Structure formats: structure tokens, C-alpha cells
């Protein structure tokens, strides 16, 4: 590596400037490095030749004797200037310096007459454009305004504010604008202060709010905000994004103007001025944006490097600024053009030169530029070359062995072969960029290499270099050869039964298939030898429905991929539709629309069902309790006892069956038809029927005449809500006293409520 003193570099570069008409101008340029160094100047990219008006000084600076914005021939001395320095190692270009003529326009805003009541706020403004920015001062009655008066505020943009007006503030005002180009006076305006201070309430009002500003770092921003009202409002500032404004470099001018000194990029944002009525939440707001730009500057400079022939050189150049700068690379002062072995990456931040040779030896510059300014940095590439290195290897040949293998062979160099320690084979897909190249090392006694794991039907380029302990030879001739084609691999295949006559074959596209033109689909019944197909499908198709199948047999489905080299191996699947048919018969398809409707009312149905179930349980418990208390179902307030004659067991059984609905068939008929117990049956079975009123009230059980009268009150429920069952009586117990036994009472139990 070379020391910094040997590098060609700028000590002083030309800077932006504003020149005065008909005045001399000097642009400075100072360079260091290995002599001899030649310095030249350009304006707008065109070489400047020495003349009477412009010539170069001995120290390399450019001297313009009489700067003119417009010359007689229409040319101008305004423009972008840069200096170029060149020595034996390369050429260097300075940053661009923008030179403008000092000017001043006429006032386009003049102060206006104003009549304001005492205690109010007066504001005058005058505006003028110029280069450099004019300095504006105010005069009252032809005398400079006293800036020591706290009620008078002068803002840099030509604004005069007067608060707490008094009678002595009345007068004639005008402004004076000054820069290196000229001095100009505005028109006069009269201020009249009328009346006495008013005590009438007035809502807060912002007379003038902040305007949008675009400035550069280290400048000063003044955001104006002047408010009026009675009582006088309190002015406060905040950022719209909620971030604190801070205190460093912050100052309030007058009664509410915000001044920010030494701007940074972090000061960018939207600022809100608020005028608040004291002691209340009544407020008025206005806002303006502040954009702070930063010229480009380098975070990382490119470094000079030395590399042997055939290796890779990488330069890195990282710049920042606001807005983000654009990066451009130069090679010996000329725009660098990319090629197969010169690449730019990472938004031009990284320059890579592959397989360098002596022609790549140069000075490389990184130019970073944005709307706020530009800067440059440079680095030199030295290509190392040793005498006595081998000549390039000879007779490089490449032969295709298979779809994934190529054999490369070569012969030893013609010159300087004694110091060879090995060879390096450089391999790359012909369609890939240079940076995708990879290498394989080979011993010095080997003159062929089998390159494997290549892609089928793909072109590859190869070249060889011979290496010694002092460096590498130049590259051999490049040879290009293609691998053989290959049939596609087996595709994955899945079968899905759609219905009793249709299945769907699906497969997944995969790079493992290799290059293929499409798919072929076959299918057949397993007991047949003949396939149906092929069904030709495009390479982007991934599914196919096979229809009109027989559900009673098993099918074989076969899929393969094909290309120009032939058919690949097939994937086979077997499928039966019989189970689908059986499931369809056993489980008919659901009525989805009906289920959806049922689901909508399921919650209401559950609630109603719970209520009905609880009611049924209560009634069943009551019926069981009453059934165990007595053997007969009684009616309340029975006026006349019901009695029944003795009858054979068969009749009694029949009667019981009739009372209970006779048979399950009758009960089912009653449930289905909704019929109640027929009253005629009671009349036929109980000849001594009670009156209609008694029938409505209930039924009493019949007793044997000899049996004691035992009346049990059971229920007052209506008759039509019950049916009566007579159970088979148990064997009659013997009467110990010899008295006639009581007739066995039929065991009636209430039937479940329908």
C-alpha cells in the first residue's frame, strides 16, 4: 500500500460562491500527490482555456478578472466549475462549485398604511428577492427603528411587529434592503394609533401564522406567529408529531415568534402556533412546516488498494444527507460504465471489479450529490504484476459427459512453468453475471477436471489460470459448452374422490422436475390392460378431473412429466369409488340450507325444550305421589259413590284395558289422532254413573258392600287428562275374622300425561 502523501488528492476544492458584477472572482484548487501533477478547469463540463478574462494561477486556482452575468456574445460566467488533477497514476475531479451572480430585484411587497387602536398590534411587511439574501432594516420617520424597544420586533424576512401600541408609535415607516449587489428602498406606509385602549372582549385571533420553510443545516429559522384579542392571548408552540421542541438554540422573538438557531435535520417537522385566551380553553391555531436539508457527506470513504492480476477489487463508498444523496462513480474523471466484470451494488455504494488486469489500474472516485450540495472521495487501484509469471494455459477443451457433468482439460503454459504450484478452474453459467463465478483448485500435475453437480441443458463457461507463489498467469481462452438434456423427474400425485363417478388428480409443481413441457395423464380399470390417454396437460396445470367412472371397480391413475428429451418416470395411484357409493346410501347428503335454518333457531329451541322438560318432570312426580297414596283415582266433592258389579276376571281385565286405552295400539292411536278418553266408555262400565256435574269433577272408586267405606281424596284434575289402568290383583288374603273379604280394588295408576 502507498502512503497518503503519494496519493493524488485535493487539499482545497472550489466552493459555491456569489460573484459581483464586473468584480474579480477567484476559485481555489490545491492538490497533493506524486509529481508531476497537471491541473485543468472545466465550466459546465467544458474545458476552460486561458484567456484575458479567465486564467489559472500558479497555485492551481482559477482567476476571473471581470465577472459578468451576461457577456456581449450571450455567454455567462455563471455555472458549475470543477478542477481536474492528473499525474502518472490517474486523474481526479473536484466537487462542483456553483457560481451565481449577485442580484437584487425590486420590492414585490411594500408596507401598507394601517390604523390600529391603542393597545393593539401593528404589522408591516416588505419583501424582495436577491443573491445573497438581502438584509432588511426599518426606518421610522426616516430614522432607523430603535431595536432596543421590546415592543418592536424585526424578523429576518422583512417583517416589523409592534405590540401594545401607543400614541407615540404613530409615524411613517419604510424598509431598506441591502446586499453586495445593491441597496433599495421600499414605499412609505403611515401608522395611525387611534382612540384609547378598549376593554371590550375579543376572541383570540392569529393575524399571521408560520409559513413553510426549506433551509439548510446550520442556518436560522424564524417561524412567525402574531395574535390579537382582548385580553391579550398567550402564544405557545408545539410540534404536530408530539415530539418536544427542546430548548437548545430556541428563542422567542417578541410576543410569540419562534426562532431556531443552528438548524439540524432533527428540527424538520410541522410546527403549531396556538393562541390561548388566559384562564380558558379557548384557542386558535396555525401551523407551518420546516424542512431542513443536509448536504451530502461521507460516512465511509473508499480506500486505495493493491491487488494481483486476476483477483477482485472492491471499493465501498457510503454517504448520507437530506434528501438522501445519489452516488456516481468516475474512473479517471470519466463516468464509470458497468460491464460483465465491473458491477455496482447497494444503490451504487459498492463497486466490484472482477478479474482485474492492468487496464483497470486507475483512480476511482465516488461523487455524492443532493439538492443541498455535493462531495467527492477517491481511491486508487494498483494492479500488481510480477515478471516471469507463467503464460496462460493452452488448449482448453470442455466435453459433455452427462446431463450434470462436464470434463474440462488443458495443457500447461508455454512459458515460465517451473514455478507453477497449481491451476484454478473458473466456472460460471454462461447466462449468469461474473460475480456468480466459482473456482475449483487443481494440482500442478493434473490437466483435467471433472465438473459435477451441473444443471441439465445449461451452457457453462470455463477458463484456467496457472498460479505461482508470486501471482497468477493471465486467463486462458474461455470455452463454452452445454450439458446434455434430461427427462423430468417423477411428479408427486394425489387422488381425491369427488363423487361416485368422478375423481380429481392433483400434483404439485416443483423445480425438482427439471425442465418439462407438460404432463401426461393415463387411467384404466385395473382388470384391463389398455389405458385411457394420454391426456396432455400444460406445465402450469396442477389438477385434472376424471369423470364418467364406474363405481363398482378399482381404477389405476398414472401421471408423468415430459420434455423434448422424452418422458420421465411415472407416478401411479389406485382409487376405488365403492366406499363413496356406500356412504352416500347410508348417509344421504344433508340439507345444508335446512341445517342452516335450524341452527338459527337452535338457541330458542333449547330454552323452550328446557321449560317443557322441567314441567313434565314436576307433573310426573305429582302423579307418582298420588298414585301411591290410593289404589283408585277419586274426584273431589263426589256427591254419589260410583260402584261396579262383580264381573269375571277376564271382563275385569278387559275393562281395565279399556280404561287404560286397552292396548298399546289404542294408546298410539290416541297419541297420533289426539283423541281423549271417550265418556261413553265410562257410562258402559259404570252403570250407576254420577251426574254430569260429578263426571266433570271426578271419579270415586267402587267398594264391596261388605267392606268398610274407605274414601281417599286424590285429585280435582279434569277427567279428560287421565286414563285408568287396572293391574292384576294379588291373591286375596284370608280374613282372620272369617268375615267376607272386601272385593279387590283395581289398582289404578295415572297414565303419563300425553
TrEMBL record:
Residues 739-754 have a biased composition (Low complexity). Residues 642-754 are annotated as: Disordered. PANTHER family: IMMUNOGLOBULIN SUPERFAMILY DCC SUBCLASS MEMBER 3, PROTEIN SIDEKICK. InterPro entries: FN3_dom (IPR003961), FN3_sf (IPR036116), Ig-like_dom (IPR007110), Ig-like_dom_sf (IPR036179), Ig-like_fold (IPR013783), Ig_I-set (IPR013098), Ig_sub (IPR003599), Ig_sub2 (IPR003598). It comes from Rhagologus leucostigma. This is Immunoglobulin superfamily DCC subclass member 3. Residues 642-657, 689-704 have a biased composition (Polar residues). It is a single-pass membrane protein. One of its GO terms (cellular component) is membrane. Pfam families: fn3, I-set, Ig_3. Residues 8-100, 105-192, 204-287, 295-382 form the Ig-like domain. GO terms for biological process: cell-cell adhesion.
